[in-house]
TrEMBL record:
<dbReference type="InterPro" id="IPR001392">
    <property type="entry name" value="Clathrin_mu"/>
</dbReference>
<protein>
    <submittedName>
        <fullName>AP-4 complex subunit mu-1-like</fullName>
    </submittedName>
</protein>
<dbReference type="Pfam" id="PF01217">
    <property type="entry name" value="Clat_adaptor_s"/>
</dbReference>
<dbReference type="InterPro" id="IPR050431">
    <property type="entry name" value="Adaptor_comp_med_subunit"/>
</dbReference>
<dbReference type="InterPro" id="IPR022775">
    <property type="entry name" value="AP_mu_sigma_su"/>
</dbReference>
<dbReference type="GO" id="GO:0005905">
    <property type="term" value="C:clathrin-coated pit"/>
</dbReference>
<keyword id="KW-0653">Protein transport</keyword>
<keyword id="KW-0168">Coated pit</keyword>
<dbReference type="GO" id="GO:0006886">
    <property type="term" value="P:intracellular protein transport"/>
</dbReference>
<dbReference type="InterPro" id="IPR028565">
    <property type="entry name" value="MHD"/>
</dbReference>
<feature type="domain" description="MHD">
    <location>
        <begin position="175"/>
        <end position="431"/>
    </location>
</feature>
<keyword id="KW-0472">Membrane</keyword>
<dbReference type="InterPro" id="IPR011012">
    <property type="entry name" value="Longin-like_dom_sf"/>
</dbReference>
<feature type="transmembrane region" description="Helical">
    <location>
        <begin position="20"/>
        <end position="39"/>
    </location>
</feature>
<dbReference type="Pfam" id="PF00928">
    <property type="entry name" value="Adap_comp_sub"/>
</dbReference>
<dbReference type="GO" id="GO:0030131">
    <property type="term" value="C:clathrin adaptor complex"/>
</dbReference>
<comment type="similarity">
    <text>Belongs to the adaptor complexes medium subunit family.</text>
</comment>
Length: 432
């Protein structure tokens, strides 16, 4: 008999919780992921799990049923969720929580499995699914925007859009310029074995106009890197002033740029990373004794960091933060290059390793010796997870690129048009 059903995100956050027997406190959701998955039992409860779509599908039981039956049920629940919701991801589960609860009510009665048949369930399920299907920005075989949320939602421009640029710019000999910035923010969770557990990309396209008069219309044409593979996103939104007449057919946005800054498009890709993660970390954490008689010990933290960007690319301002045990007093380090720096931050209970420039394809290492009086084996669990921050110039993780910028009618005087790409780390976590 099944006692409870959990659906957990890759970070261990509970998305769905269903208690069939009402014998246990709801505080059970507060148990972290390693307690549910790694310990396999807690206070007489046995936990059985399956991993599908980057999510953990967990069942608890007080009795001793066949684990293969429970695993088969969890896999079937995941398959039904995908059939009804259109995709299997954290976002689709959050958007369709009411539908999933209705499915569980029909599939399980007081902890006993009733049915997993789609033909039977479709006669009872009344809730309609909220679709979150991705679409291709460059698949021109279909009409429309291919299921994405592309209605012209109002995207508020930044303050610079309503603030005039200095009118004396052109008079002082400055150039007439238009900048198009493609900015992406990357959120990644990598497991202790190097497996990508979660990846989200939030992007936006900004136009910065420094023309003395903006009476013309700017056409922005998209393409994918290499002009071959398609760029897929889950949803995109446009500024209210953007014209989408040629977007379906030619992937061209038209906008009359005002002086200042405008965010003309925002897009999002969830639970997928089209390219390899930019960094891979190979950590090692050990305990060592300085003086056993006075119980003076240290933690040896060896980090080998590899940059998986193309050889001609460079990551800038790379910062690695590693939590250390609470009682850490001092630290010594051995770094693989002189331009790196490292320091212990006792207030934050972490060490900070900074690399100003990290070429693509390169590999750097560091050995940290952290003095921790009275170090216990349990204190080693306080090391990690590692968090990183960085900037990737001239890079987009989705592969989105600007093919051309065209002003019509042609403005008087020579105007310069620039396209800049940059990817920032929003949250880049690596578990040890």
């Amino acid at each position: 008999m099944i006692s409870q059903i959990f659906i957990l995100s890759s970070k261990g956050d509970h998305l769905i919780y269903k208690d069939f027997v009402s014998l246990f406190s709801s505080a059970l959701f507060c148990l972290c992921l390693h307690l549910l998955i790694l310990l396999q039992s807690h206070k007489g409860l046995h936990f059985i799990h399956a991993r599908q779509g980057g999510l953990y599908w967990v069942a608890s039981t007080k009795t001793n049923p066949s684990p293969f039956t429970i695993i088969e049920f969890l896999n079937r629940l995941a398959a039904l969720t995908k059939d009804y919701c259109g995709s299997l991801s954290e976002k689709s589960v959050r958007m369709n929580f009411a539908l999933i609860y209705e499915l569980l009510d029909e599939m399980v009665d007081f902890g006993y499995i009733q049915t997993t048949s789609t033909d039977i369930l479709k006669n009872f399920i009344q809730t309609e699914a909220v679709s979150s299907k991705p679409f291709s920005l460059f698949d021109l075989s279909n009409v429309g925007l291919f299921g994405a949320e592309t209605q012209q939602s109002k995207v508020a421009p930044s303050v610079a859009a309503s603030r005039p640029i200095m009118s004396s710019r052109g008079e002082q000999g400055g150039k007439n310029e238009i900048f198009v910035d493609v900015i992406e923010r990357l959120s990644v969770v990598i497991g202790s074995k190097g497996v990508l557990m979660k990846a989200d990309i939030h992007g936006e396209i900004k136009i910065k106009c420094f023309l003395p008069s903006c009476s013309g219309e700017l056409s922005v044409c998209f393409c994918s890197s290499g002009y071959s593979s398609a760029v897929r996103v889950d949803e995109c939104r446009f500024h209210q002033a953007v014209k989408l007449d040629e977007f379906d057919t030619f992937r061209i946005l038209k906008v009359c740029p005002s002086q200042g800054e405008q965010t003309v498009m925002q897009y999002q890709l969830c639970d997928e990373l089209p390219c390899a993660p930019p960094f891979q970390l190979f950590p090692s954490v050990e305990k060592d004794y300085v003086n056993r008689s006075v119980n003076l010990s240290m933690v040896l933290i060896f980090l080998k960091l590899r940059c998986d960007l193309p050889p001609k690319s460079t990551a800038l301002n790379v910062s690695i933060t590693v939590p250390v045990p609470k009682g850490s007093t001092s630290m010594s380090q051995e770094l693989s290059s002189p331009d790196q720096t490292a320091e212990l931050q006792p207030k934050n209970k972490a060490l900070l390793w900074e690399i100003p420039r990290f070429p693509g394809g390169a590999q750097l290492s560091a050995l940290f010796k952290v003095d921790v009086p009275g170090l216990s084996s349990a204190s080693l669990l306080e090391v990690g997870p590692v968090s990183m921050s960085f900037e990737l110039p001239k890079q987009t993780c989705t592969g989105l690129q600007i093919r051309f910028l065209r002003l019509s009618p042609t403005q008087t005087g020579l105007s310069q048009r620039w396209v800049r790409y940059v990817t920032h780390s929003d949250s880049y976590t690596i578990r040890i």
